[in-house]
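Cross-check.
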Amino acid sequence: MKNVFRFLLALLAFTVACKSDTVSSPPPTPAVGANYMNLADNQTLIVHCKGVETEYSQTGDIVVQNNFDNDGHIAFGPLIERNGYFVHPITAFNFQGEQIGGGIVGYVGQDANTVYGLNTHNTVLGTGIQKDVSSGASWSVVPGLRGNPTVTVQRHLDTYQANGITYQDVIALSCTYNDVSVNNSGPDSSTRSEKAKGTLYFAKGGGFIYGEVESYELIDSAVYLGTVYRYKHETVSGTIVRTN
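Predicted model, tokenized:
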């Protein structure tokens, strides 16, 4: 769950509910991406995470399967300037109140049109929600980044209900990540594949309200002289709903 939570958090930084199936007509004046985020100093986003995490053996048998059903929260600090951009530092905490990542995990900001973000170790600006949020619009969070995290506007909804609250004017953003690396060096070889697909929902003027991890899979293996000495295969699926 930790990896998936970080994946969704990265999209927020760069970016069980019932929903209406009524798709809205395009508004006379199309809204811009920044309208769907509502950042403020010292803001806390409380979320509830629910789903299942499964670990597999090399033969595909289930080794461990755990259900999770707990809270976490994301804190946005006061506005600061970093690398020429005005952003809010992000920290995240699990249901035990333990800080994820040991400190700041990213930075997020917005201008009149877009929501953007920075990670903690370079100056490359990422686009969490671009200006054009018409249905079908798509963009790379950071062009050229490994895994090519990509966001596509799946649809607009007149209303969407999450955690018992009905929100008006909601966009559903489909998010994908696909990172595969292979290393062959003499008798030693390794393969790592990390793939994720999810949908994030943002309400106009309200920000993030709901997320669904449709699939997440990590396969990490290493072989030396024909013998596997490291193997990990796990999958996760679940939901993340805003509760405040």
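The chain has one domain: 2-15+17-242. Confidence is low (pLDDT under 50) at residues 1-7, 9-29. Passed to J.P. for a second look.
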